[in-house]
Amino acid sequence: MKMLQGKQIILATKHHKEIVIRPIMEHSLGCQLIVPEDYDTDQFGTFTGEKDRLLPPKEMVLHKARVAMQRFGYRFGIASEGSFGPHPLLPFSPYHEELLAFVDQDNCLEVIVQKVTVETNYAMQEFTIHDSFENYLNQIKFPLHSVIVRELPTNNVIAKGLNSRESLFEVVKKSFTVAQTIRIETDMRAMHNPTRMLVIEELTNELANRLRRLCEACGVYGFGKRELVGNLLCCACGTPTELYQSVHEKCIRCDFFQVKQRPDCLEKADPRYCPYCNP
């Protein structure tokens, strides 16, 4: 994309997200990704709670990019923001929302791509000195994925980024000298969580594709903002369901949009999604 050919883009990260973002952006768009050495993104919030996130995710991801752009003097910026927790609709399932944002300061353009998935190893479990945590470690794919250890009930973080049994056992042993219960949880920082890094990689490909697309009406780049429109009707009774009907791909500046079918080409909803047939 000629607009970004040869341009420098600052990436607001301290957690090595450039490992997956840089090669995709530079190869796809011909730009140069700059990662500042002394930019502490933990100032915007930490997964372990030392610093609360003070803005909603979409506002925060843009703020994170803009602060870096202003501090280091760049026109273009990129940042990502991840959120984890229990799934709001699926009991006992984890939830991962990842946002990746691109900002063009001179043109006042913002492009945000988003992925929501249950494909995450986000998990935590409490243990006493008599418990084995081998099943838990296998479940979260340790030591490929690192862990965090906390003392309970104080909730104090004893150590982060543990990625060997030797270091984990040493920390656990030390923790049990001062606490009867500990909690081991997945470290969701990108460089310690390959599963999250794969999601960021997928979003980077989506972002690069968006930045290559021009609006047919006004010519602005970044076309393809997705909006889910309408409701599929139940094939049995015709009641509107919560399943969307189509996708509108929109310009981020003007009112032009294109209507796209659902990827699964569904035209009617199965009765199991119907609030009347399956209340």
Task: Describe it.
The structure is a single chain. With 279 residues, the chain is α+β, with helices and mostly antiparallel strands. The chain has three domains: 2-120 and 192-212, Rossmann fold; 124-187, ATP-grasp fold, A domain (Dna Ligase, domain 1, 2-Layer Sandwich); 217-279, no CATH class. The protein has five helices and twelve strands. The strands form three sheets. Strands 2-1-3-4-5 form a five-stranded mixed sheet, sandwiched between helices. It has a four-stranded antiparallel sheet with strand order 6-9-7-8, covered by helices on one side. Strands 10-11-12 form a three-stranded antiparallel sheet, with no helix packed on it. Strand 3 (76-86) and strand 4 (94-104) form a beta hairpin. Helix 1 (18-29) runs parallel beside helix 5. The longest helix is centred in the C-terminal third of the chain and has 19 residues, at 194-212. The chain is flat and about 65 Å long. The relative contact order is 0.12. The mean pLDDT is 95.
Globular, elongated, flat, extended or rod-shaped: what is the shape? Answer: flat
Arithmetic mean pLDDT: 95
Provide the CATH top-level class of the largest domain.
Answer: Alpha Beta
- Total strands: the figure is 12
Count the DSSP helices. Answer: 5
- Strand-residue proportion: 25-35%
**Proper CATH architecture of the largest domain:** 3-Layer(aba) Sandwich
Radius of gyration (Å): 22 Å
Main β-sheet, spatial strand arrangement: 2-1-3-4-5
CATH topology of the largest domain: Rossmann fold
- Uncertain runs: none
Number of domains: 3
- Proportion of helical residues: 10-25%
Q: Could you name the CATH homologous superfamily of the largest domain?
A: B12-dependent dehydatase associated subunit
Helix and strand sequence: EHEHEEEEHEEHEHEEE
Q: What is the end-to-end distance? A: 49 Å
Oligomer: single chain
The structural class is: alpha+beta
Largest sheet: 5 strands, mixed
